[in-house]
Amino acid sequence: MTKQTPNIQPDLVATRRYLHQIPEIGLSEFKTSDYVAGELGKMGYEITRGLAKTGIVATLRNGTSTRSIGLRADFDALPIVEETGADYASTHPGVMHACGHDGHTAMLLGAAKILAERRRFDGTIHLIFQPAEENFGGARLMMDDGLFERFPCDAVFGLHNDPALPFGQFAFIEGPMMAAADECRITVVGYGGHGAEPQDAADPIVCGASIIMALQTIASRNIHPLQASVITVGAFNSGIASNVIPERAVMDLTVRALDPDVRDELERRIRLIAEGQAASYGMRVEIDYERGYPPMINHKAETDYVRALARRFAGDDKVTDMARPIMGSEDFAYFLEDRPGCYFMLGTAKTDNDPPLHHPKYDFNDDILPIGTAFWVELAEDFLSGS
Ligand code: ZN
To answer: Which residue among 14, 155, 235, 252 has the highest number of C-beta atoms inside a 10 angstrom radius?
Structure first.
């Protein structure tokens, strides 16, 4: 596996734990960005900063080939109060690396070092250190700042640690891997009044409840049974007292789909049902529909390529195909809309019941650092091997 890879595990662990101590929320990863840029500077990379504010692209060229590859690590954290009790726990109150982006960044930094020392490739490597995966779509913002025009990549690759997957297991899926995540706020505009005199009011709670129930028919009656969709009404707020009919009711929805056409159909049906239901009650709705991350769709050729590479790297028994896509979302989706590539999972389980991602007791498994690092090196050197 790590045939000629130098033993840099102590450095990797120190890097990961340092990053863990300074977690920062998306688009304000200033300390993290300074640290990453500083490390890359010592390795001899051309460094470009400021894409999506705190994002970094580190470029290394070797040989004469025009081939190029992009490898991405995200480096933002979450608004969670850490409960790991680790001696390297977050020093930023209320902010925590609870998704392992500290580990992703440490692995790509480790790979950066080996790639620069060995220079066993022919072409251009762009290492993409991306902010704001969790909230603001840092991937999209880096593209808005000209990421792929300024740093052309023949293909892009990204990975995520998975504490639910056996240690060292690679998991791949071709085509849709993660869902589009859209949000919708529906405000039912009624007419307030006395709770004992409903005939003189227009009750937005009853209308809102009816809308919520009718929304449940979209997945079951409008979408093909074998196509994935989720509509969750995560919040429904209205009223303050038992004897007062309020003016308004507000509901917030998350809407998920793996297929762009299903995504369009969900929006169309949500609007029709909300408006139609409201009209039947003599009320109206205001709808604020916001498209979030698109579905993340892995490209076939790049998925086949990186899966085969993982088999050679880790052995057939360490490579699996995911049983199904995930209805969560990931802004690497924007990269894959623009460039060929593949996103995949790397198992990091310590026990058979690790705290999940985004849990206050979750902690990135440092034992995976040398494996992830070596795989990035292998991928870049193989992709740019000139053969
Ligand atoms: Zn994550």
So the answer is: 155
Task: Give all domains of the chain, ordered by start, each with its CATH number.
Answer: 6-178+295-383 (3.40.630.10), 180-290 (3.30.70.360)
CA of 101 to the centre of ligand 1 (A): 6
Quick one: which of 193, 195, 185, 191 has its CA closest to 250? 185
CA of 163 to the centre of ligand 1 (A): 12
List, in order, residues 6 or more apart from 84 with CB less than 8 Å away.
360, 361, 362, 363
- Beta strands, E only, the chain: 46-51, 55-62, 68-74, 123-130, 155-162, 170-172, 175-178, 180-189, 193-194, 229-238, 244-245, 248-257, 284-290, 296-298, 319-321, 341-347
Query: Using an 8 Å Cβ cutoff, are 141 and 77 in contact?
Result: no
- For the chain, the first-to-last Cα distance in angstroms comes to 21
Q: How far is the CA of 283 from the centre of ligand 1 (A)?
A: 41
Give residue 386's pLDDT. Answer: 73
Span from the CA of 330 to the centroid of ligand 1 (angstroms): 8
| Percent of the chain's residues with pLDDT above 70 | 98
Phi-psi region at 284: left, alpha or beta (left = phi > 0; alpha = psi -120 to 50): beta
**Interstrand relation of 319-321 and 170-172 (parallel, antiparallel or unpaired):** parallel
Q: Return the pLDDT at 2.
A: 47
> What's the pLDDT score for residue 10?
80
What is the predicted pLDDT for the residue at 201? Answer: 98
Give the global pTM: 0.93
Q: How far is the CA of 117 from the centre of ligand 1 (A)?
A: 29
CA of 139 to the centre of ligand 1 (A): 13
What does each C-alpha distance from 277 to 188, 200, 207 come to in angstroms? 10, 20, 7
Encoding tokens for residue 5? 């890879």
Single-letter residue type at 275: E
CA 322 to ligand 1 center in whole angstroms: 18
Q: Using the Cα atoms of residue 266, residue 268, residue 269 and residue 274 in order, give the sign of their dihedral.
A: positive
Dist. CA 133 → ligand 1 center (Å): 7
Question: Residues with Cβ within 5 Å of ion ligand 1?
Answer: 99
